[in-house]
Amino acid sequence: MLFKNRLFLEEVIEESISFNKKLSFQDTNKNLSLIANAEELIEVFTLRSTVFSSLSYENEFKDLIEYLNFDKHDKNSAIITYRKNKELTATCRIIFDQYNTLPSDTIYSFNTQRKSHNKLAEISRNVINHTNKGLNLEFKYLMRATYNIFIDNNIELYVFAIKKDHFKLFSKFGDINIIKEISSYGSLELPCVIVSWNPQNASAFFKKLFLK
User: Which is nearest to 172 in space by CA: 140, 137, 207?
Assistant: First the structure.
């Protein structure tokens, strides 16, 4: 099994790098970027594993190889990195709906959204290293990056799952709607909501807080 997973890791790395090189990403922040090589991708997979383990999320988001958290969806994802003093401190991915299957499709089918929007994507694996001291700007810059990926690559709708108690903040982003409320997300026993968001109609609040 380990040998098989290592071969799969090589496949994911190759296809993910190729996918990210084809994307458009225009951002003036020098600390924000898309992954460009295998070393950066391994850093991302390691950070995911570390953070998920610290949050006790490892049963839901399993490591296929010890200390490396990745899956098939990385192959068709924009994988965003944020660095502080050259150290990777945050990452998230935007999964493009190329194959009409997104992670949250296992909980709620997005076929209704697919009928009205040609290009869906899911925000996923939003990971921040909270062990760093000082003002945490990672969330701000990850959200800024998700906005830019949306605009620069002609995505029509984002879908994603968040904790229910986080929706109060997200509801201020503009054109964001609850699709479904759920009592748990997989093995994570906590109230969540699945939402859709169109950053094309981002609110003044979002632009002021995240884009300036």
Answer: 207
Asked if 159 and 120 count as a contact pair (C-beta separation under 8 A), the reply is yes
- How do residues 93-120 score in pLDDT, each as one tens digit? 999 999 899 999 999 999 999 999 999 9
Q: Are 101 and 67 in contact (CB under 8 A)?
A: no
If one counts every other C-beta atom within 10 angstroms of the C-beta of residue 27, the result is: 17
Describe the crossing of helices 2-21 and 38-54 by its angle, rounded to 10 degrees: 120
**Across-strand partners of 33?**
81
Residue among 18, 17, 19, 25 nearest 149 (CA): 25
Single-letter amino acid, residue 103: P
As a whole number of angstroms, the distance between CA 44 and CA 127 comes to 9
Identify whether the C-beta of residue 165 lies closer than 8 Å to the C-beta of residue 148.
Answer: no
DSSP conformation class of 204: H
